[in-house]
UniProtKB/TrEMBL annotation, chains A, B:
Coiled-coil segments on the chain, per record: none
Record domain Transcription regulator PadR N-terminal: where: 7-80
Domain Transcription regulator PadR C-terminal: start-end pairs: 92-176
Protein name: PadR family transcriptional regulator
DNA sequence: GTATACATGTAAACGGTTACATGATTCT
DNA sequence: AGAATCATGTAACCGTTTACATGTATAC
């Protein structure tokens, strides 16, 4: 399980509240790990209990108080231990691929709109990642180790989205070829 | 949830026992959906209860009897319904990416061996997919709709593994650059 | 003789998702 | 006035993973 380790990394990069962590998981961390605020709150409580993180209550005017978490030494130790452990390569789950194979027993042309919707989502993600890259990693800048590692992870997100867009185009071409045989009134 | 739908697709392509389904999830279906035999047995029981699949007991000499499942009409209906529903694009989880970002707070060079291990796993998967492609989809063959859809999904698996290998090379180059710059005695 | 493949299952623990709940502030 | 954002939480459910359990047959 890497959620607690992802939280440790995020808090080492920048301390923050559970809510702020949830925002980061939506944005920058989202291209390699996702989590909802409920998950994050639950794990933060466990990590606090285990002494991995420290909390500081911060009063804010107008807004509710927030609990700002930062990594305690045992948390750093836990992260080091985990970094040294092997993890298994993740296995993939693409429900759209299940649908594509299922289309053989239904209506291939009916999947075109769905595939186009997925394509749009991935095109939007790619645009967002590319904008983030231009903003945070300008060319010919001297980057420290942390920034270089962040950049290589972002390049992974970009490569993933590009590959996915190309594949979805391949799927669309295949579905249209099959649909052409028995045309879609849509 | 797509596990039951992945099972429906697999059983439509070819009826089989829970054990055989688990083998297929290890092999051909593994590049877009994974499942263990425990999951499959439990879901098959539920699907049988709901009338989605039919069971036939097959005695085998020497080996234990097996229960061969096939899709019943309500199962086909459930698959059609699901094909027409939109599904959300999956979000990614790559613990290796968490580790790469975490390496900023530990020992980047220590991740090289782990990254190489992942690279080897993905290289092996790619080789397996390419061999399967040559075997099942020879060039200049006339393919029916089902085979064309299977092929486009396999091309997705191949594209994913190629992209991942390239990215892992990028990660290795980055880690080596950092390790060379300031060898961390920690 | 040992390991692997075939074949099916139970039980417990864990992780993730969804719904509900509260309450103030800022933006349109 | 209504919606979105900030901020934290509880509870119930569902899905997944891991460990355990059993037994035969084949290959090395």
């Amino acid at each position: 399980m890497a959620l607690e380790h992802a939280i440790l990394v995020s808090l080492l990069e920048q301390p923050g509240s559970g809510y702020e962590l949830a925002r980061r998981f939506d944005r920058s961390i989202g291209y390699f790990w996702t989590a909802t605020h409920q998950q994050i709150y639950r794990v933060l409580r466990r990590m606090e209990r285990d002494g991995w993180v420290e909390v500081r209550d911060v009063a804010q005017d107008g807004r509710p108080d927030k609990k700002v978490y930062s990594v305690a030494p045992p948390g750093r130790g836990a992260l080091s231990d985990w970094l040294a452990e092997p993890v298994e390569p993740e296995s993939v789950r693409h429900s759209l691929a299940v649908k594509v194979r299922g289309a053989a027993f239904g209506d291939p042309a009916g999947l075109i709109a769905e595939t186009e919707r997925h394509r749009a989502v991935h095109a939007e993600r790619l645009a967002r990642y590319l904008a983030g890259e231009q903003r945070d990693f300008p060319e010919s800048a001297e980057l420290d180790a942390g920034a270089q590692l962040q950049h290589v992870v972002l390049r992974g997100g970009i490569a993933y989205e590009r590959m996915t867009l190309d594949w979805l185009d391949d799927v669309l071409a295949t579905l249209r070829r099959l649909g052409g045989a028995h045309p879609d009134p849509h």
